[in-house]
Amino acid sequence: MRTRPRHRPPTERVSERADPRLLRVVPQLALAGLAVVLVWPAARGSSAWLGWLPLWLVGMPLAAWWALLRCPLPTLAAFRSLRRDHGQARRRSPPRARKAHTAAA
Length: 105
Fold this sequence. Notes:
The protein is mainly α. 41% of the residues lie in helices and 4% in strands. The protein has helices spanning 20-39, 53-68, 76-82; strands at residues 46-47, 51-52. It has a two-stranded antiparallel ribbon. A hairpin with a 3-residue loop joins strand 1 (46-47) and strand 2. Helix 1 packs antiparallel against helix 2. The N and C termini lie far apart (119 Å). The model has no long low-confidence stretch (mean pLDDT 77).
């Protein structure tokens, strides 16, 4: 007798990873598209059928890669590491005017 799989509530997040073959191929396509755009000047232009070619050669493979990684957003800790720990810059006080040194007459 087979047991039925346990029903998961819709709020429970299912952890599914993308196919590793796709995760290997899509970044290679993005790098190949970047190489084509950098080396071949015609790939930097536009096509009547496709539109702007760098979008399709570089941008769309990068967007697909990001989607395969389940669209991770940067964490707050990443933003904090970019910030300097010196605090806000303070204004300097204006330089004091020097008294003119006059020779006694």
